[in-house]
């Protein structure tokens, strides 16, 4: 058990029979009444985000989550195959469970698979990935690096707003948390 006073971003907890990751939290001490912790939690089974308030000092269960380093291999009939790099065991994850993460994943990419016991909860991506621009509008003379952006479709199908100087075939670093352009690779 862990006290809600010890919440940290990224901590995984068990509440109401579900596994949650703490996305954000705030300790609140009102002038009148008892202190409490306002938190934003992400359900690792469904992907939904919920705000929940706990009384200060309340105890919740700490969920033991394992991250197994695996390599993304290929898609097979609506599932995606991953291989454990330590023992070469392969697992399949249904596309519906990881459809948001697929926008950032290329074949042979190493990712962490989030597991609770033997249950697969999802894929934990690196903070940034390098993707190639598949299609974007050509530059127009007079466009500068500091004046706006244009949409670009990456090799995985992800659409990202990029600066005007980016061309088709460029390799870009993309933030996986919010899908934004970081820089050229």
Please give a structural write-up.
The chain is mainly beta. Helices cover 0% and strands 54% of the residues. The protein contains no helices and 16 strands. The chain has strands spanning 2-3, 12-15, 18-28, 36-43, 49-55, 59-62, 66-76, 79-84, 90-94, 110-116, 119-124, 128-136, 150-154, 159-162, 171-175, 180-184. It has a six-stranded antiparallel sheet, with no helix packed on it. It has a five-stranded antiparallel sheet with strand order 9-8-7-10-11, with no helix packed on it. It has a five-stranded antiparallel sheet with strand order 14-13-12-15-16, with no helix packed on it. The radius of gyration is 20 Å and the shape is flat. The N and C termini lie far apart (44 Å). The mean pLDDT is 89.
